[in-house]
Amino acid sequence: MALREILVAPDPRLKIKARPVETFDDALRTLLDDMVETMYAAKGIGLAAPQVGVPSRAIVMDLAREGEPPAPRKFVNPEIVWASDEEVPCEEGCLSVPGQYADVTRPERVRVRYRDETGVRHEIDCDGLLAVCIQHEMDHLEGVLFVDHLSALKRNMMLRKVQKAQRQKTGS
Ligand code: GNR
Ligand code: NI
Questions:
Q1: pTM
Q2: What is the DSSP string of 3-64?
Q3: Which terminus, N or C, of the chain has the lesser number of Cβ atoms within 10 Å?
């Protein structure tokens, strides 16, 4: 397993629509394992392949709380097959928009169809943080960041802060 670099906005690779996974091979399983390791190292609860520069429809997530045993989940080619009419706001952050947080309103519940890392099909009903996180991750597969759900004013303010912090970090 290996750590991968997490891209930070405004990296253009975060704006690309990811392609479906067609072969459930060892390369896919290595990617997913690397993504889990990278997510844990960054203390995130989810990570989408485009965030590590891979334009594939693959997501990892772990919603276990501190002190609970790790519970990594892997989703390949996920699709939302139903979403509730009810929507709820939740404060979101993103490893590709570090240090910035804002409320995003999304459907409260979704039903998601996906394949696991061996290609087996599953369908799950999601609510709470799972629903929020899976919708946030699936946005990444469309090249959408949580700041794209905000007003242009808020979005540009957050992206400018991220760029400034990155410039200070890299000394450029
Ligand atoms: O670590 C993360 N926390 C989080 C909090 C609220 C809503 C969504 C998320 S996902 C984020 C990790 C990330 O950027 N995934 O793409
Ligand atoms: Ni994110």
A1: 0.98
A2: --PPP-TT-GGGGSPPBPP---SHHHHHHHHHHHHHHHHTT-SEEEGGGGT--BSEEEE--P
A3: C
* pLDDT classification of 172: cutoffs 50, 70, 90: confident
> What's the gap in Å between 145 CA and the centre of ligand 2?
7
**Percentage of the chain surpassing pLDDT 90?**
98
The answer to whether residues 129 and 110 touch, using CB atoms and an 8 Å cutoff, is no
- Identify the residues whose C-beta falls under 6 Å from ligand 1: 44-48, 51, 92-96, 132-133, 136-137, 140
Query: Atom of ligand 1 at shortest distance to CA of 94?
Result: 14
| H or E element at residue 139 | helix 128-141
**pLDDT tens digits, one per residue of 90-116:** 999 999 999 999 999 999 999 999 999
Cα-based distances in Å from 70 to 73, 85, 155 = 10, 32, 33
pLDDT digit string (tens) for 141-157? 999 999 999 999 999 99
Q: Which ligand 1 atom minimizes the distance to the CA of 42?
A: 1
